[in-house]
């Protein structure tokens, strides 16, 4: 009897100690330091702010056309042009007057968005290509142009990536490298063989994010890299694999370096000029984003990052940056005296200050009349669950790659739970402030002349507006983003499964 009492008391003391640790750790992780808020973004968004921003946008719509560089008459290959960012680049090329017959989209699936399947966009050339297949990429670049144009120069926008952001084990890195590194090399090789003169690559602001330890000792006040100010300085990029937030970032930096190294190299009878853009942080907006669009799809969302302060990147701003970089490289090719920006990388973000995830939640909740809601959970408890999921995912994936029948014995994480692994905490549980001042400098001073017309709040208003206009329907890409933990399993979860089955997608890989 005495042993039973002692055992019960020991269990209760252990449980109490763990409970107290979780509460203490949560208090450290789920806070916005006052000095950070005061320095970078002192005003929190209110429901009134959200309503007023939506009203301003309705009365004075932001039109991207006046901000786009002028028509060039060139040929364009948009790798990933049936997807999210790539699709917006296609739309902006058409909006500024480019001939649709001079635009070619390479993607693993055909476009489904209405703006990519109606009007002038119907005349855009589409070729289904997996960029990890070198022969297929080469054939697509050498294919005849529908309009018969063989004389004008060629620009390539490479936006494709495989987003295995939930993995960080080196053994799984080849799964990301297949597309993000080898696929990028295939695009470079095909570009040079086809005589492409400009290649703009979508890198990622996350390549600069330093992974940090979130299991704190009781005497520690906050994680070591709790606040990170990110600039274009390559010296801040992690040097070791375990310092990147995930395999996604570790593979994207390798792809970026390939593109930058290809600058000013022979391409056909001329030379290839290249440049890279690092959007920070998540790209969001209408057309299939896996961040804010996923919140709208699920409607009921768990969260533990309401107080996290970060920059966001509205998709039309990011598309504009790509076109600005192309313009700068074309000017250099034409003999401009402005500084040569070839082979460089620029961080880009929205106009205005960074926002908290709580600000984002406020806008989405307000503008959907309360239908999009967010329930706060313990960050520390969810981090513990994430480590369990990571072990299951690693074991199953390694066994599956080895062809072992034992893989079937390890529970599979569905397309929603697979996202809940430690890397997502390394990216969203820390405060990330991107400084894109260098991109906004005028061309004559060595910048892109990037002037984003959209603030993050305005972009969120546009996202909700388009979501409501579409009757709440979403692109397949949005259905696979985020984490629901069953809050909306009957609706969003089944929708994800239907989309995956219908498109024959790998549920553990989301491509742009």
Shape, principal axes of CA atoms: globular
Rg for CA atoms: 23 Å
Q: Output the CATH homologous superfamily.
A: NAD(P)-binding Rossmann-like Domain
What is the level 1 CATH name? Alpha Beta
CATH architecture descriptor name: 3-Layer(aba) Sandwich
Q: How many structurally independent domains?
A: 1
Estimated structural class: alpha/beta
Query: How big a fraction of the residues is strand?
Result: 5-15%
Specify the biggest β-sheet: 8 strands, mixed
Overall mean pLDDT: 92
Q: Find the count of extended strands (DSSP E, 2+ residues).
A: 16
Q: Give start-end ranges of low-pLDDT stretches.
A: 488-511
Distance between the termini: 62 Å
Number of helices: 17
Could you tell me the CATH topology label.
Rossmann fold
Helix content: 40-55%
Organism: Artomyces pyxidatus
Protein name: NAD-P-binding protein
Explained architecture:
It is a single chain. 42% of the residues lie in helices and 13% in strands. The protein is of the alpha/beta class and 512 residues long. The protein has a single domain (37-381, 393-503), classed as Rossmann fold. Strands 1, 2, 3, 4, 5, 7, 8 and 13 form an 8-stranded mixed β-sheet that branches. The chain has a two-stranded parallel ribbon with strand order 6-16. It starts with a helix and ends in a 9-residue tail after the last helix. The model is unreliable at 488-511 (pLDDT under 50).
